[in-house]
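S., here's the first fold you wanted:
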Amino acid sequence: MRRFFFMTMLLVFLFPAWASAFRTGDSSVVLPIVGRFPGAGGTQWRTDVFISNPYSPTAAVTVTFYVAGGAPITRSFSIAPYSTISLPDIVQNNFGMSNSSGQLLLSCSTSIEARARIYNAGNPAGQFGQNVPGIGLSQLSRQAYVYGLSGLAGNRVNVGIANPNDVTVIVSMRIYDKNNNSTFHSEILTLQPHETRQFNDIFGTYGIPAQDGLQVQFNAGDILTPLYGYASEARNDTGDAIFVFGTGPNV
């Protein structure tokens, strides 16, 4: 009896952690950046997108590509229950563009999930890239916080912020050290509807001393305007990269 009581109480304490597991799916899912464009060192960047319908019935999905500097383009897809569709090199194959980037918004009457693979296809050493998770609009908040970024050992760090809203958003950006002692850069950004702004090589651009543990925080002035912030940390020698999405711990 005592053992049974102990196991029951253990399940009671564990259940809330299991029940609150992070869900990326939603009826509106944001991919902050997709693209097809040349990069540094002869790289040629491409994007594959994967959309999953983990439920029943069939999902009718509308995909809108908010092209940087251009008009949005919309495509529609039907995904059978418990199925996934693959959209390789989506910018060219589905939107007919050979050199463009921007934000992708997926909408459906039911909940769906999505992710992107952004990779280099033009390096003699072979492909390398990173996974970009699609996150449901209802899961995002007015804050996007990334941390543990390293400028040591030949690492290059890019950060970005996406406004997935239909309205203009004012966002503050702050870059600071791991101990919160020094602010290396701060500015106020005005992001147009569905605009994604990326800041490349922040260590070099802002003259930040080489270090690890760097933190970047984006905050919107309006609590009703969610953001998708991210960082991409890549090695200069191999191109190996990792993607970090921003969290909202202080919301």
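And the second, which I think is the more interesting of the pair:
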Amino acid sequence: MLAVALRDIGAEVEAVEDGGRFLVAIGSRYRDGSAVPPPDLIVTDVVMPVCSGLSVFEALRAAHWRTPVIVITGLDTPMVRSSAKKFGATLMFKPVDLLTFQRTALRLMATRHSAQHA
């Protein structure tokens, strides 16, 4: 549903089934030493098989990625809020309003593009 919403606003989307596959997909893009630019936006759910969305997000920040991240969750806990705030993610709660999600995605991607060209 979120991938479709992103495609509807013109985004190119690569969807994966779980956090582990996401990390493998990212790693494979850089394995040969190529200078592939990072994605403009990452959307992750907190609860995912293999590796949680928060673990994926924290690993990206530990690797100095500054890509904007939207963390989706149905778990409104202090730990989730704290992690999102600490690492600079935009937190959205389920059920996700698709129009708000699209507007947030567009804003974050525009901010990233303006920062890259500044």
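Why I say that: Strands lie at 42-45, 69-73, 90-93. The chain has a mean pLDDT of 88.

Talk tomorrow,
H.
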